[in-house]
Amino acid sequence: MGEDIVGLPGNAAEMIAFFDKRTAEYEAHMRENIEDFDEFYESVVAALPASRRPRILDLGIGTGLELDRLFARFPSARVTGIDVSRGMLDTLGAKARPWSGRVRTIHASFLEADLGCTAYDAVLSVMALHHWVPHVKLDLYRRIRCALTPGGVFINADYVASTEESSRRLTAYRAADLDDHHTRHIDLPLTVEIERRLLDEAGFAGPRVTFRRAHCATLVAQAPTEGIRPLG
User: Fold this and answer.
1) What integer pLDDT is reported at residue 9 of this predicted model?
2) Rounded mean pLDDT of the chain?
3) Strands of 120-126's sheet, edge to edge?
4) Which structural domain, as residue segments, surrounds residue 153?
5) Which of 224, 217, 229 is nearest to 34 (CA)?
6) Global pTM?
7) Measured between alpha carbons, how far is residue 28 from residues 73, 101, 182 in Å?
8) Domain holding 119: CATH number?
9) Which of 15, 56, 119, 207 is deepest in the core (most CB within 10 A)?
10) Residue 29 resides in a domain
11) Per the domain annotation, does 8 fall within a domain?
């Protein structure tokens, strides 16, 4: 994965402007740059819990690249998608699909939006969470765990990095002295090991890797079946 795909800190464009600008080319870009694209997206849908009408929260839904596969398997699913880019959501809304009426979108940052509690059978995110440092992700993962029903699953399919690469990016980011809830387009992929540790710490049970390539992975974790542990 070259730095043209996942850039180092220093891109001064705000995140919203970055994604709004590249909306038209986004899907082609992802198809060209994600290793084993079809298998990667299949791994997301395969991890969803068996249910006739699953309630799914999609963080960073973008143009909805995963939705054709999702609704092919779960035609009665109900999806709530959150994204900070109006351009991405407009592109998603313009798609004429049989499932279009089953998708509700929210134009907001999922770092700030109310995710609810025990509201979803599954929370998924595809190529959206690699912009933040570990402690910000840990807070988000705890909120995701709270949003899930007991035994619900969280699926995070995202860029990952080697220990050396992840450390280099985090070091460069910290040298830039930016706020951890920044709105710039900054890519900070973590190692699979760190991602699993964060999921453990957030209260998920048995996080596992269901898809792995050099620069991307799908991690699946289950919310406690005995009920939701309090945040904090």
Assistant:
1) 61
2) 92
3) 103-107, 78-83, 55-59, 120-126, 148-159, 216-222, 205-212
4) 15-222
5) 217
6) 0.93
7) 24, 25, 27
8) 3.40.50.150
9) 56
10) yes
11) no
